[in-house]
Amino acid sequence: MKIDLHTHSTRSDGTMSPTELVQHAIIDGISIMALTDHDTVAGWDEAAAAVRGDFQLVPGAEISCLTEDHRSIHMLGLLFDRAYQPLQDALELSRDDRVPRMKKMIELMAADGIKITFEEVLEHQPEGSTLGRPHLADTLVTKGIVKTRDQAFAEFLANDSKYYVSHIAPTPIDAVKLIRAAGGVAVIAHPYSSMRDTKMSIDNFVELKAAGLNGIEVDHRDHGNEERQNLREIAQELNLIITGSSDFHGTGKLNLIGENVTSPENWEQLESLANDRRVIRK
C-alpha cells in the first residue's frame, strides 16, 4: 500500500487539475493520497468526484506559517472540518495578502533590472488557484530569464533571497491549534527545507507538541539521510507520528508522486486522531 500525504493541484501551484492529480495517483499505484494545496480547500470537491475503485482521498491543506522571527514554516492540516470558520478565515487572510506580496517582489526585481509585470504573473495563475511564488517562477521561465522553475527558486525566489517577501500568516503554534480545533491532525511539513541553516533539536518541537502537533514529515526529497535520522529521533522522543510524502506538484517540480510514503501503520494511527472519519472513498 502506497500512501502519499502531501500533493498539490492547480488550485495552488501544481500543474495538474484535482481530477488529473487523482487519476495520475491511481495510475501510479497510490492507494491513499492527501490533497494539500496551499492555504485553500478549493480542490476538494473536484478531487472527490474523481475517486475510483479502492483509492482513498485525504482532504487537507498546506498552511503557510510565520514564526515570530519571520521564518517561513509550512503545516499540513489533514482531515479537518472545512466548516470550521476560524481556520477558513485564517486561510482567506493569507490568500488575500498574496497579491500585495507578489507586487512587492516584482518591484524588488524591477529595481535590479528584472522586468516582469503583475499581469504577466497572473497569466501563469490558473483560475481559482492560490497565487504564489511558483507563478512568478513560471513567468521567469517564459521570459527566458531562467530555464526551469527550480532554477528560479534557487536563484531568485528562495526564502533567503533578496527578492523574497513574506505575507500574513498564522504562527506555527496558532496553525496547529486551528487545525486541531477543526477536528483535524497537524503534521509539520519538510521542517529542514525551511530551517536548513539551523541545527534542529527537540526544543524546536516541544511547543508545537504542546499545542497539539501530531506528526513530522520526515521522509521528503529536501531531507538528507542525517536530517531524516535527526527528525526520527525527535519524533520518537516526543511520540510524534513519522510521515513521508512526495510534495508532488506535477511538472512544476522534480518530485515524483509516491517517491516518499507513509507506512500504513503510521497512517492508521494518524487518522485515528481526527475527530471524525473524513477520508473520501468511492
Q: How would you describe what is shown here?
A:
There is one protein chain. With 282 residues, the chain is an alpha/beta fold. The chain folds into two domains: 3-95 and 167-272, TIM Barrel (Alpha-Beta Barrel); 98-157, Orthogonal Bundle (DNA polymerase, domain 1), CATH 1.10.150. It is built from twelve helices and seven strands. It has a seven-stranded mixed sheet. Helix 6 packs across helix 7. The longest helix has 14 residues, at 98-111. The chain is globular, with a radius of gyration of 18 Å.
Short description:
The protein has helices spanning 18-27, 44-49, 85-96, 98-111, 118-122, 133-142, 149-157, 172-181, 191-194, 203-211, 225-238, 264-272, and strands at residues 3-7, 32-35, 56-66, 72-78, 185-189, 215-219, 241-244.
Number of strands: 7
Shape: globular
CATH C-level label of the largest domain: Alpha Beta
* CATH architecture descriptor name of the largest domain: Alpha-Beta Barrel
- The helix-strand sequence is EHEHEEHHHHHHEHHEHEH
Identify low-pLDDT runs: none
Instruction: Return the structural class.
Output: alpha/beta
Number of domains: 2
CATH topology of the largest domain: TIM Barrel
CATH superfamily of the largest domain: Metal-dependent hydrolases
Main sheet: which strands, in order across? 1-2-3-4-5-6-7
Helix content range: 25-40%
Helix segment count?
Answer: 12
Main sheet: strands, sense, barrel: 7 strands, mixed
Instruction: Give the integer mean of the pLDDT values.
Output: 94
Write the layout of secondary structure elements.
Layout (H helix, E strand, L loop, with lengths): L2 E5 L10 H10 L4 E4 L8 H6 L6 E11 L5 E7 L6 H12 L1 H14 L6 H5 L10 H10 L6 H9 L14 H10 L3 E5 L1 H4 L8 H9 L3 E5 L5 H14 L2 E4 L19 H9 L10
Parallel strand pairs: 1-2, 2-3, 5-6, 6-7
Antiparallel strand pairs: 3-4, 4-5
